[in-house]
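REVIEWER CHECKLIST
Item 1: Sequence provided? yes
Item 2: Single chain? yes
Item 3: Sequence as submitted:
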Amino acid sequence: MASGTQTSKEYIQHHLQNLTFGRHPDGHWGIAHGAEEAAEMGFWAIHLDSMLWSIVLGALFIWIFKNAAEKATAGEPSKLVNFVEWIVDFIDENVRGSFTGKNDLVAPLALTVFCWIFLMNLMDLVPVDLIPMLFSLLGVEYQKVVSTTDPNVTFGMSLGVFIMMIYYSIKMKGAGGFAAELTMHPFEAKNPIIKILLLPVNFFLEAVSLISKPISHSLRLFGNMYAGEMIFILIALMYGTSVVLNLTGGVLQFVWAVFHILVITLQAFIFMVLTIVYLDMAHQTHDH
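Item 4: Structure as written out by the authors:
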């Protein structure tokens, strides 16, 4: 909740500010003390909190699944093993239903993407003031714990998928086949002159479609999670004002948290499905 020394605007801005490390205008490297200093650091600045929580949660995912794999036996499985097997079967079903090619990397990638993003999204259910308050005791001014509300993180993941998509497109179709895919569709013609005239038009349309994939892939996740985080912050502003608003805020927070469980799961699922679909498109070959 907002303290007596903070206005509502300052409280919201504080919670939306990442812990940023970069180069200051005077040349020295250090932590930004506010949004203005963070903006002055430019492109090469690093959001330390986004990096921290994404790495920690990625390591947590690996530890949980490694632990389950070590405990898996031919006998009656434990609850953890049952849960992990259910997730693996769920991902495997989706891969089999959406991916028509043959690539042993796709299913593990889909599993990693879904679980990692789900864990990062899950941090949105932690009370908005709890972790920042704990870090403030250590002298850390800013701490944004939901990594998927940082466009740098979502763009980074979508660009990784996009690079794989381009790689497999060229690998499966060849450089000529990939070039033909970008220039021979959607408009086709048998007349060679008209076909040549249509090349730049087709290339423009296909290039826009291709480039829009990583952008929409990342912004969909970022936008939904950012909106969810903002609502939690706005609800937190209701606390500390009056008994009625405290009770109202508590009810609203509970209702939104229950609904948000669906949102965080759905967003992880959508990102995973699009990853599978994009890689499936890369593996499809056509005669040109």
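Item 5: Key structural point noted by reviewer: Residues 8-283 form one domain.
Item 6: Recommendation: ____
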